[in-house]
Structure formats: C-alpha cells, structure tokens
Design a protein that fits this description.
4-stranded mixed sheet; alpha+beta; 16% helix; 15 strands; 5-stranded antiparallel sheet; paralog of FGE (formylglycine-generating enzyme)
Amino acid sequence: VQMLTKGHHGVKLDAEAWDRLITWIDLNCPYHGTWGEDVGDPGRQRQRRRELLKLYGNVDDDPEAIPPPDPETIYSGHPEPIVSDPSRSRLPSGTSTDRNADTKRSRSASGTYQPILPDPPADLTPSPVICDKRSVELDDGLTMQLALIPAGEFIMGSALGADDEPPPTKVRIERPFWMGAHEITNQQYAQFDPSHDSHFETMLSACHGVHGHPVNRPEQPVVRVSWVQAMAFCRWLSEKTGYRFSLPTEAQWEYACRAGTATPMHYGDLNTDFSQFANMADAKLSHLARDWYILDKPIENPTKYDDWIPKDARFDDGAVLSIAPGKYRPNAWGLYDMHGNVAEWTATDYRPHRSGVVDGRDATITDGRKAVRGGSWRDRPKRCTSNFRLGYPPYQCVYNVGFRVVCE
C-alpha cells in the first residue's frame, strides 16, 4: 500500500480497486479459501460437513466449492504507459554539486540526466562542527539532551526518489533551533504517561508459548504512540519546563538530518557500510527467525519462508530490533539515529512535494495524515534516506514509529 501510494511504477488505482485491496488486507490476507487448496481433498469430510450444515443450520453450501469467475469482471487490458516528468531530472538553480558526488549529473546521448555514483568516502567520521548542547531536566533524575541546529539553507527533497519526494527545492531555515539529540525513550515518555506500553514485536512465524521480542524496555525508543499523543507529550514538556517544545516540521527534520550534506544519508550513499552509523534492516534481522517456543534460539540457516523481511545483508549493525538511542555515530550536528532505529513523527501534514512551493509545506492545519521520517530497524537504507517520506493518520499507533522533539 505504501509503495502504491508513493506512485510505484506509475500505477494508479481507482476507488473500487483501493477498496478491494484494503478489504483483502482487513480479512487478514487469507492463506487459502478452502481445505482442499491447503491439504488436498478432504474426502468424506466435505460431504459430511455440508450435510450437517444443512441439517442444523438450514444452509445448503459447499465450503470447498470454488466458483468460476464472472467473465464481465475479467480485465485483460494493460496499464497506461508511464509519462516521465522532466522536472524530476532538474535541480533548483543555485545548487552546488561540488561537495557531494551523488548530486552531480551527466548528460546521456538521449539528453536525460543520469546519476553518477560517488566514490566511497575515505573517512566515515562526520565532519566536526562546533555546536552547543544543553540538557532539560525531567522527573526522577532523567535528563533530555538537546543539540543546537544552526540557521541556513539546504535542498529539500530528491529528483530521484518516489513521486512524493520531488522536486528538489531550496529551503531556508530562518532561525536556529534546539533538537533532541536522541529519540524519546520509553522511560522518558513514562514521565508523561505511565500507562503506555510499547509492547512486543511479534516473531516472523506463529508464536507459541512466547510473546515475541520486547520493545518496551526503559532504554528503547518509545513506539506505538500516535501523532496526537506525541504532540500531547510536547505540550506537557512545555508546561513542565517553561520552554516551547513541539515536533519538528518536515523541513526542520530533513535539514537537521542532512547536517550540511546532500548525500542520501548523512554518512554517505546507499552502498556505504552503515554498521557504525545506523540501525536498519541488515544481516542481523535474520535473527528474528526463531524457534516457535524458544525466543532466544534463532533458526540456523533459516529458509526464505522463515526469514522473509527484505534486508541489506551485506552489512551487520549488531541490532535486531530498536535499541537504546545513541549507540551509533552521530551526524555532524550531534544528532543520533536520524536514519533507522525508529521512524519519527513530524508536525507537518503529509502532502506531495510536486508543486515545489515551500509556503505551506510545514503547515499543520488538517486532521489528515502526518509526515513520518527516517525509517526504522525494519527498513532498508532506501527507506531511511534523508528525503524518504511516509504518512500515517494522526490517531494511528505504529509499531516502529516514535518521535524526537524540538525547542524554539
């Protein structure tokens, strides 16, 4: 659904097609409609089941019958060809392409722009930047560390991403602001709502005798909090400290994540080894394929049916699920886990960037979907870039979405 919403291969669904797809999902993606499709001919059971249903339920129905399709519902046409958008191959005027190789372009014989892949960086250490830090006191001796993000300009969005990412637009952040160096943890959130539980992450197959993998430990980032709850936390924190806290806007979030870079990640491109920088879907994710009854026993050499989550198995960041923020290298402005670990709510309404108009992009004026950034432990790097976007309803509590705060 997320891929289709973001314009996957130019496919567009009408209202009826969306309704059918969502209904199928709501029905729990049925494995098989009949016993015969799963285990073979049920034999005498089929007829006996029908007899009892008719006798005691006054219903004459054969659950094993597969009705033929209605010829009128069969469509043999092909999707319309994708019309390329020339604007997606252009960068805004004034964009510097000298600092980052991945923003350079070369002309092909057809006249279209082609990306030039950058060379691997010689030094993966973020560029040192002098920035201020401050701490905010919470209850029970807890503190929250903030990093000062300077004012400046950057190119927001990407010409090479999904349909909701272009066009690249020059955006100016007029004033510096403080941003949480880390994602809000379960322990910090509990000062606001002691009843909240981030719960467990289920196993990749059936769970028998075990709950799954905990994501509700005090040091882990809080998840399964809605946008409404995250904003309520910000209001509580504002009243408690006397400072004005909120969620970051999309522009603030992407600007802070990039920290002066124009590469897909603040540490490099999609082929850069992220093991020291981010908790994303990697080789370690195979450890989620475990014995049904023994949580701490990963399956040796799991099949694709047990180990089915897409991942970049070239790298191993050492984490299976979300972990305590701050375990990986920060970006140049002292922010940790901007890529991966858990995705993060922003204050902004989710809307496409097609128009290229900045005014109103950061507005929060509707009850519609809200923008989420950064990707999580369950996402490959391409879904954790500085410009990748998702949108969720403000009431939805998502299993891998948390938040961090800004203070202005």
